[in-house]
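2024-03-11 09:14:02 INFO receiving multi-entity request
2024-03-11 09:14:02 INFO entity count = two
2024-03-11 09:14:03 INFO echoing inputs for audit
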Amino acid sequence: MSQETKPKAPLSIEGAIILPYRYAAGGVMSRFLIALRDSKKTLGIRCSRCNMVYVPPRETCLHCFGRMDEWVELEGSGTVESYTVVRYSLPVHPMAAPFAFALIKLDGADTSLTHLLGEIDLEKIKVGMKVEPVYSESRKASILDISYFRPAN
Amino acid sequence: MNEKVGIVAQAQTKYEPLKEGVDLSEMIFDVVKQVREQTGLKFTLDGTGIDSTVTCSQDLWDGRTISGMFASDVAGAHLRPEEKVAGNGVSAAAYGCMQILSGHYDVVLMVAWCRESITNGRLVEWMSMEPFVHRMLGMDFCAAAALQARRYMDKYSVTPEDCARVVVRAHSNARNNPYAQSPRKLSVEDVLKSKELASPIRELDAKPTSDGACAIILAREDKAKKITSNPIWIKGFGSCYDAHMPGDRDLAKCDALVSAARQAYKEAGIKDPAKEISLAEISASYAYQELMYTEGLGLCGEGEAKELLAKGVTDMGGRLPVNPSGGSLVGNPVTVDGAVRVAEAFLQLSNQAGARQVPGARVAVAHGVDGACGQLHNVMVLGI
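2024-03-11 09:21:47 INFO inference complete, emitting structure
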């Protein structure tokens, strides 16, 4: 019997982790997503102590650890703070590459929302450009109820 | 720190894009065996050898949960204690240090591993995102980093050429590092001509897929001095998280790193890091991060790292070499990259760094990072 432990063509096997999850949105995220679905409205939440408006909303202020409950209705339009044109493809991408992600500071918000840009020449995106949301026809209480943001008129 | 903890040995595999014919256990065994042989230490329960193991790995990268479990035999944890850090290796080394400072153990093995080649890393990164916005959008760390790169580059007038110079230097330094994955002779042009991944990040700006493992042994002062004639001391450690959602932060800055560095320097008694530190080993997955983190570590002012680079200050032979090893841009797997930074600092300070040795190195800073756009930063100061 040979003492060699390493065969010339070592094997490997295929595997995958496939597990179903049901992520609870909680009260605050639920209200945000339901407003998108039912009334095409973007809601933020304000910390009265820090005078900060968060989008997406969450229950706790990052800065003072206080509970927030003051809802703010935003126009939905905003300004591109940064963007990237993605050239690779992942099965989880909602758009086919090349497409653009942007950090969008919504008017009236203090944080930026990450989203997609559409109806736009990918070579002509600029930091500072004004954008507005385009809502999906079939809304499902998802961030993708905004299909993407497009240049505002 | 009142008590002293020393690093007495390190071992690394060569980093490769695909370690064919080797399973995870064999890779881990390789580095653990090396540090045992270097120190002559055995795994014991009577206080005469290695007392405990800290492993450093991430479940989804290993393709199994509680991924310290499968490695207990090769990590020296058969019928023995093992704690897992699902973070970067700087954090794991700090955890080992704390096990000693707390009085629980005297000698600790830290071993970090990852085989990025076994899965689609961008999907692992995607799985770390919160599920309601970023995961619905299909965001991974590369796209998130690209959003940060543009903010940083816009704010401080950093050009793609500046970032390309970081890559050229990384590869140039890595040619002196026998563990380095695939150092190349590159020009700025080569980097700028490489395929765009997510603008402004190009393929050569980004860390390549990498497999490998790294082990270090930490020991209480009295034992460290018995194990080796030149232990390297952990002088200070800092850790800081930033907001999980990138849009909650000013992405042009790395406030969490500034805070982590401040803690580490305070503990180490360092008042002016730019003057007192001999070299920095920085974890950067994208070229702009090496510049940004050089600034965050207080080695220069905000937006000034590109000037240090242009003047050669952070090159080998400069006053403050950054990543003499080449760093992760040439290929270190995630989780392992932080461990490599500590291991390389040890090699430099114990004058064992061979062709990449920084002459007269006395104090080094090792940096680790986790999460999209550098959400968590760990900083360790080491000295002779």
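2024-03-11 09:21:48 INFO post-check: Chain A has a mean pLDDT of 95.
2024-03-11 09:21:48 INFO post-check: Chain A has one helix and eight strands.
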